[in-house]
Amino acid sequence: MAEVRVRFAPSPTGELHVGSARTTLFNWLFAKHQRGTYILRFEDTDTERNRPELVEPIMESYRWLGLLWDEGPYFQSQRFELYRQHAQKLLEQGHAYKCYCTPEELEARRKEAMAAKRNPRYDRRCRDLTPEQEQAFIKEGRKPALRIKAPSTGVTVVDDLIRGRVEFDSTDLDDFIIQRGDGRPTYNFAVVVDDVLMKITHVIRADEHLNNTPKQILIYRALNYPLPVFAHVPMVLAKDRSKLSKRHGSTAVSEFQDRGILPEALVNYLARLGWSHGDQEIFTIDELIQHFALEQVHPSAAIFDEEKLLWLNHHYIKSGDPKKIGEQVRAFLVKRGHMSESDAQAVPSETLAKIVDFFKERNRTLVELADSASYLLKDSISYDPEGVKKFLTPDKFPLLEGLAIAFSDVPEFKTATLDHVARGYLETKGKTLKDVAQSCRVAITGRTTGAGLFETMEILGRDKVITRLRQANTLISQASREN
RNA sequence: GGUCCCAUAGUCUAGCGGCCUAGGACGACGCUCUCUCAAGGCGUAAACACGGGUUCAAAUCCCGUUGGGACCGCCA
């Protein structure tokens, strides 16, 4: 069997949309599963999009996700000569013809047709021009575009791996343009020429292209090339079932990266969106490669569910290597404004790993982890005003002070010891841990939520704990003076 | 207006004619554990869009209706 070759062909927009990322993932998994080749190609025939700053972020997101390409990236903007040659061939063989209508004229006719609720199709008026008519147009200085001759009878069948057999009535096909007046190819033409030249065996792309497929098949036929296998994957929609766009929140892969999502979580989530393997939810990359099959892709559109993504992210934070995750937290310490670049670099990896291990049960993203880490690492902390108001009340003053004293001479500052000493002290006052735990927590962390109190103390260390317990007392007296 | 695609709980899905009084997961809710918040454990609610066929038998096959979506550019 011939080698499987697939490609993904994004338009350079400056960012990688999660929908594109998923389609790419399906291509990539299919290629890996088949031990084939995955090719990256940028569709930038539109010169507006032919800019490096629009391309690089996309490749960066691919690298982050681990979706590396085996070949490319190719740029259509560098292949215009190839398309011109093929268009010329079609012209010579009578599969295409010159059209002298101007874009303005066409636009006017299209609008008119739409207004009259007629089909906005090209009327083929240039298909059989006499030499005299053509000469007249040339004299006017019109630059001809090239149109393909579409058949007026029969059906075009798309055999789709996900949709099954889809029929299109050929009478609906337009004599669409394959080469613009300035010699640049149009999308549908460049795609086919490239797919042919790059020996693409399976075209796996978004659903929105299904309607383009009969047009492309027309070009394959005119060029006399065999068809690839087509597979149109369903779209990813927003909560309101419309196309997932900016107004729905995060859409770019880089935004998820910035929000502290792990690449393995996003990959796992995207893979499971529209595809399934029995009841399995968690997949390693190797498992995805092993089990992925286009036949198992669910044909209906799927809604992007952030909650489930977060759940998966949490899973990978809990089950991952704390040291590796800790290293990723380091960058967020700076991004979140908790510390300077150099201070963040100075934190030992062991400390970060310990912190990750400590908070992984309750933090779902790297951002949350970084925020948690900040109050353990920094000397000064900020206090949650609600927590202060509720728990740092004057009646707690003697207890916190008493604990500070009790803690100052424990032999070793360890969880079990602290627990024992604290409970012992509270008993002498006729109190329980419950009476003071939350006040203590606000005093030493500034927050009302967090990990185990004594574990937190152990990590903070004697100095910070005692200092903060006493600082809390000044907070209390300030508050009572204000009242 | 035309063409095409899609249709199981709020969401992702299993199901490919009998195993379905429809399974799993996220989310929601409740209980439990507990120094808080989580995590964990246990449990509850929640779906085959509708109408016709085909068949001994339909979530599963066919047709229609409704609803959603995509495309109809000298954009990609």
Task: Kindly provide the name of the CATH class of the largest domain.
Answer: Alpha Beta
**N→C terminal distance:** 83 Å
How many strand elements? 12
What is the count of distinct domains?
4
The average pLDDT score comes to 91
Radius of gyration based on Cα positions: 32 Å
Major sheet: order of its strands? 1-2-3
Biggest sheet features: 3 strands, parallel
Could you tell me the CATH topology label of the largest domain: Rossmann fold
The CATH superfamily of the largest domain is HUPs
**What is the CATH architecture assignment of the largest domain?**
3-Layer(aba) Sandwich
| Oligomeric nature of the chains | single chain
Strand residue percentage? 5-15%
Q: Number of helix segments? A: 21
* Helical coverage, percent range: 40-55%
- In the predicted model, the low-confidence regions spanning at least 5 consecutive residues are none
Query: So what's the overall shape?
Result: elongated
Structural class: mainly alpha
